[in-house]
Amino acid sequence: MAVPVVDPSLNSLTDADPAEAESTRRPRRRPARADLLALGAYVLLGVFVCLNYWGDVTGRVSSHLPTDHSWFEWLFAHGAYSVRHLENPLFTARQNAPDGVNMMANTSLLGVTLPLAPLTMLLGPQVMYALYLGAALAATAGTGYWMLSRHLVRSRAAAFVGGAFLGFAPGIIHHANGQPNFVSNFLLPLIVVRVLSLGEPGRWRRNGLVLGALVAYQIFINEEMLLLTALACLVIVLAYAVQRPRATRAAAGTFLAGLGVAGGLALVLTAYPIWFQFNGPQSYRGLQGGVFHNWGEDLVAFVTFARDTWAGDPAVEKTIGLTEQNTWFGWPLVLLSVVALVLLVRRSLATRIVAVLIVVFSVAAIGPWVRFNGVETGVRGPWSYVSDDLPLVEMMMPTRLTLVVAAAVGVLLALTWDAAHRQGRPVADPPRVPAQRTAEAATSAERAEPAAPAAARRRWLRPVGYAAVALAVLPLFPRPLPAQQIDPPPHFISAGGWRPYVPAGRTLVPVPIPSNVHGLPTLRWSALTGQEFPVPGGYFIGPNELGEGVFGAPNRPTSSLIYSTMDSGLVPALTDENRRQAVEDLRFWRASVVVLGAHPREAVLRELVTALIGPPQRVDDVWVWDVRTLVG
């Protein structure tokens, strides 16, 4: 007879026999070989996913999100520059000169770029980007494996399958196309374990301190994923409390004490950076127009194969519409999940909590309006009742709530494999409490036949369960991330020919000026030279005149003129006012030199800039306008 475990720790999420729960809580010493093989497989898979970058690591970027890819290369260079020059990493003037960029108010990955700064100096930001991307995927799978194998399942194979999904789920692979912050989830399984361990008696200080340190570190990796994890933990705790009220009441004091310690330590460690994020220079309040608020998950996306999986088809995006593909599980995995929940939900508390997570976050991710196969149905979604003026909520993208669903599905896969693993294995008789012995003495019917024959009859369920999980996840095996070739920076830039033209305190103005739409190659000039010269414009989020967050620097008249000329391919009729404004803009940017390298619109851009500020010089492989005497 199974007895629910009354234990305020993570291990109480399984309705196991006491002996079995004790085995999960203190696993028998097993060979480290299984753990090493799992980690090795994850590393190989991480290398495989990044394979197209390694073919030409200095000349390729993501073909899906090339600008984001370049931004994160720039971030690695920022970390190295901050360490090398001992500058405040929370702010930089090397982009968006002269106003600069608030790095805490942007996705800055400081928790990664700063400790890896020595490697970036040695290898360069391009190599560092590709190296870190694969490592982050593998590390997330590895900590997921550790959490599952040490706390939720007994089968190492089950933990391997679940960990692989946590690290390489379709939504995670989609974000790997230029957004390594969303694949850097290796601390999240550790945070969940610490949260669910806060109720352990006698360990609330230690658990609280560890949790506080993990939370503080995660803030410098990805605050949005930390927020999603906090929401998931809240749902887990509430679901546990409803189903285990007595254990919850017994552990509440210890849990809250540990939570207080964690919150206090995290606040002490991050108080100034968080203040800087919301009150420092170039901070902002919300995004203009609440651009993320309306982006929900299409219902058909749940049963569609993601683009970057072996079963995926890029053409599907034309039907559903371009989304972040945070779910895109495909029919087999959705069907398996439904069947697994039906079969396991009555016997496993962990499965019941997983079911709650899947339902709550799937519904919430629909967004303000229900979309079906790319068509907005007119049916209100849950997000329509949430104000887009609420702090933090205004910055949330509803579709990303399904990243919690993906994590829950990964845990469900591990639980399903583990349940199949236990089929056909005799279960040891649990230790019996006195009340049980009395009842058995009074009723001979309690002395059932040995479990082994019944277990043998169920032995066929094991291969069926294994096959079902394999058939559901194999179509989701990731493809190598697609990459595209990108031109290297001009020799004038990479060889340092710019140095005589850019004294301290002045900027190099590349044409086109970097922005979130134009000037991707010129943004990389800054990253690939170690940010030794500042540039105007850039790719970031900063405040507009109303203090709302907008992408990129507000266009000045000259940058707008450059962009419109690029789009039309024709130089417009220019006036003296255009020329006066060009000089004024160069003075605002503190420019000392304007540089135009090879570009599809090189001829028309050279004609435009020449008409604005005079003839250039050909230096090495670029056109150079020395404007120091012009702007003073």
Automatic annotation (TrEMBL):
The chain crosses the membrane at residues 36-55, 129-148, 157-176, 226-242, 254-275, 328-346, 353-372, 392-415. Keywords: Membrane, Transmembrane, Transmembrane helix. It holds the Pfam family DUF6311. It comes from the Bacteria. Residues 434-452 have a biased composition (Low complexity). Signal peptide: none annotated. Residues 75-375 form the DUF6311 domain. Residues 1-28, 424-452 are annotated as: Disordered. This is DUF6311 domain-containing protein. It comes from Micromonospora vinacea.
